[in-house]
Amino acid sequence: MTDSQISVARTVDRCAVLGPGVRAVIWVQGCPLRCHGCVAAETLPFEGGTSRPVAELADWLAGSADIEGVTLSGGEPFSQAPALAALLDAVRATRPDFSAMAYSGFRHEVLRRGSAGQQALLDRLDLLVDGPYVAARHGALRWRGSANQRLLALSDRYTRVLSEPDTSAGIECALETDGSFSWAGVPPTPGFRTGLEEELAARGFVLHTRGRRQP
Ligand code: SF4
Questions:
Q1: Would you tell me which of 37, 46, 93, 112 could form a disulfide with 135, CB atoms 3.0–4.6 Å apart?
Q2: What CATH code is carried by the domain that includes residue 92?
């Protein structure tokens, strides 16, 4: 994977439960960590995913007028930090006010001591949710799965959200025209995904983990 390509697990073009306002979301493929209870197990192997050009993703985001920014999730966004930093630069070339939020299984302090690409991505973020998911500390928290994870404002853009109620933003579910079912968000209760899959299977449905893809 070069810095002009991003390995993507899935995307959605509008989401209101993974960061402020309405945002696009990119789930990258590949994570070096293995948090017990990870809700995105299909995004963990670095093999797989779809290699997508930074320029193509930038055109999609810049052309989505009804969103205020993008949330980078995964997988581990900081495993593809140089390409994601380049993506944000490309979008902001035409939309300077486009906001960026990211998740990472690593603590902010660790990323600050990381590679030049990781520091470049940090420098372009407005919000960061940091730290691994710890199932024993699961909570119904805003945009986070467990209480050890921090919501950090890395710019002045969203400092207001830090004083807003720290309660779950909920889950968004979508039934696509092709019959597939997808969901996004941070489950407020542990075991959400397993329970959902069992419930759907009992009714004859299969859960698809892909999102709504752009052309
Ligand atoms: S850091 Fe995130 S994606 Fe990686 S294993 Fe932990 S919860 Fe899953």
A1: 37
A2: 3.20.20.70
Query: pTM for this one?
Result: 0.93
Please check whether residue 107 lies inside any domain of the structure: yes
Is 48 part of a structural domain of the chain?
A: yes
- Which residue in 49, 34, 32, 45 sits closest to 210, CA to CA? 49
> For ligand 1, what atom is nearest to the CA of residue 31?
4
Q: Which atom of ligand 1 is nearest to the CA of 37?
A: 7
Instruction: Specify whether the CB–CB gap between 100 and 125 falls below 8 A.
Output: yes
Q: Nearest Cα to 129, choosing from 157, 101, 167, 159?
A: 101
Is 76 a domain residue? yes
Domain count, the chain: 1
User: Among residues of the chain, what percentage have pLDDT more than 90?
Assistant: 80
What distance in angstroms lies between residue 170's CA and the mean position of ligand 1's atoms? 19
Q: What confidence tens digit (pLDDT) does each residue in 57-67 have?
A: 999 999 999 99
Whole domain around residue 126: which residue ranges?
A: 5-167
**What is the Cα–Cα distance from 22 to 67, expressed in whole angstroms?**
5
Nearest CA to ligand 1 atom 2: 105
